């Protein structure tokens, strides 16, 4: 187990390195940073000075090495929009995103797994048909459209909830629900499938042969075994979750890292974009690690590997 | 214990039929849009701005689905929007299919170093929010149809790689492969002539479902402003525009959303139906 | 009165057209302390019979008729709750695949304790003691250390012993063993069979041993039922069956055993195959493959005929001593 954890921990800096490198290359290569800093009347000489100061005349790899050095000290550069160091700005917005993502993930997991269990237990009945039907329909739906629909209904028509921004919990409801629907259909279907496959395992028959009730069988024998593939799936969905959060923040003007990123991309505020990507990558990697740990807690075979 | 078989209603043949109908309908609409669209999607008609669809009180048969902020006919814009969505969806799915299948087959057949590198890379890529990368790249190089296809195509290869890798690995052990090898066939020949044909059915199913995913992603990118720039008629653009005018003109967002849903749902149904057709196990299970 | 009395048991599965009776009118009885072997090839319905006794037939299959009297109670009339009280407590079952029969996430100790928690009010400590004693009894070496081990840490033979421990921890009156040694190595097979025989002698429990392996049944059974195509075709004491089988099918089975003492000869087989569900003959089901069959055999299904004390065969021309 220690071995396993160590190995995973080692892949973190590698992944981050790769992520940062790709982002760096893309941003440097496809746009002239100098243009942003200079005004139109700048002379060629002023240009050269700026180029030298930003080290833009050096080979790309060297620039990246410098950049890495800065990053190690937490320095992503100075934001164009805010005029201050980029990383603190991003961290400042991190709380809102964590709140949104955390709530959405909890909702999606609890409701999704619950519905999946119900659908599996009453397979082929009306509950299964309804739940599976909704899940399949949900897979086809652009979740951001649902968000827009929800705004129309709950905010504009019923006036129950606000249309955007932050404040009390009522501001969190619609964005969290919208983000949850990115993941919900898949959670339902994966749980249902996992449960159905587990129910056919021989040890479930053994449990019944011991005289256990169906409820006990489902809760103590089937569910713990079925949860494993669901957790694996959860790990894989982290990327989608992050992507979804960006879109959701855009729809609801939620002041998190995602909406900051969108704005910064359009403003060509490179430091913020890099800092934001970095933070998101770390979040994904950490989340995957947590999922791994959870799996090893549940399954002794993984624990002892 | 009586269990009513509601799920039997959604027989796989029904799925394939219904899905195919929708898909063919949309494709035809996309191809024939210039001929059958009532208006030029770019034509502005400021007299009829923000006209609701015909079923509302203020609606008019002149503009069956209403107009947007510039008086452009919504029905025409939706029709033209389908062209982009279909084109980008299919092309990017094809691109990622080619990339992913080749890499997957390579990793599965040759194993060893190939397997390690390719599959690790796939895992890493899978964990990364592809939409983030797409956002990044599109923002950098601009939103054009070609760029969208390239970016989405590159972001989708892992799904194919995984599936093809697993399939190839199981096929590799089969006797007919050993037979071919003992006859001195080259790796390329075996992969191309023996392994690939076995993968085609699954590939078709995966590709079909991926087209739907690509369309959704393209829509998301356009929605964020990273697709083809306005005034191009793309469903994503229209959704974004609709979002800003939810109070005044909800039909813009709703109808574009509906269009997306119908197409994606049709494709998903077709794909799922095909998959159930292929796999006898999932036929019993679901 | 016998401990177990099965009368005209019928278990059916829905088929493409109509239904298929995997167990079609099976009757037998089992006394306390007796070991009954149930022998047949794959598809003969022996496993389904076992599951039917426990009322664990997987849907869409279901028991369609007949009666199962266990310890004076009609099992088919019990509600789910009452049946659950019998399972694991009065009547237990062990299966063929020891690895998949054990929950991979629970320690073996916990799995042995589970029947105790379900059927007794023993405290946790007492249950643990009893479970440990049981693990010792089935000869798990170093049981107290292995108590917290997980199934994947044990070998196939040890796992099967754990299964036996689970089945016997509540001291049932009847143990149903469904091919318990089929998935094990030959040497381990012998050990498990010895263990089962020991335990059976000590506890005087009844045992129903289901297998396709004649060697296995010769070791442990007192009496044998031979099943073919969902029906019992012969029942006899073990020695009688091996020495003088009366039903042509049983005789065929005996003959097809490879005999190491004889010269090398071709292996004897029974020609033909078991009829498919929708092609069941209306007369004797074995007639198509029987060397001695004639038109009378095809007319109607023969019932079990009394040939000698405790020896019955479902054949109108049973083989005599010299056949």
Which key phrases capture this entry?
heterotrimer, A: 305 residues, mainly alpha, 79% helix, B: 286 residues, MetI-like fold, disordered C terminus
How many runs of DSSP E, i.e. beta strands of chain C? 12
Please give the count of helices of chain C. 12
Q: What helical percentage do the residues of chain C reach?
A: 25-40%
Shape of chain C: globular
Helix amount of chain A, in percent?
A: over 70%
Report low-confidence residues of chain A grouped into runs of 5 or more: none
Largest sheet of chain A: none
Give me a quick take on this structure.
The complex is a heterotrimer of chains A (305), B (286) and C (323). With 305 residues, chain A is mainly α.
Give your account of this protein's structure:
The complex is a heterotrimer of chains A (305), B (286) and C (323). Chain A is an all-alpha fold. Chain A is 79% helix and 0% strand. Helix content of chain B is 72%, strand content 0%. Chain B contains eleven helices and no strands. Chain B is elongated, with a radius of gyration of 22 Å. The two termini of chain B are 19 Å apart. The model of chain B is unreliable at 1-6 and 282-286 (pLDDT under 50). Chain C has a domain at 247-323. Helices cover 33% and strands 23% of the residues of chain C. Chain C has helices at residues 46-53, 80-86, 98-101, 108-119, 124-137, 143-146, 156-168, 186-203, 214-220, 238-243, 248-255, 295-299, and strands at residues 4-14, 19-30, 35-39, 62-70, 73-74, 91-94, 174-178, 206-211, 223-228, 231-237, 305-308, 311-313. Chain C has an eight-stranded mixed beta sheet, sandwiched between helices. A four-stranded antiparallel beta sheet of chain C has the order 2-1-4-5. In chain C, helix 4 crosses helix 5 (124-137). Chain C starts with a strand and ends in a 10-residue tail after the last strand. The chains are: A mainly alpha (305), B mainly alpha (286), C alpha/beta (323). Chains A and B meet through helix 1, helix 6, helix 7, helix 8 and helix 11 of A and helix 3, helix 4, helix 8, helix 9 and helix 10 of B.
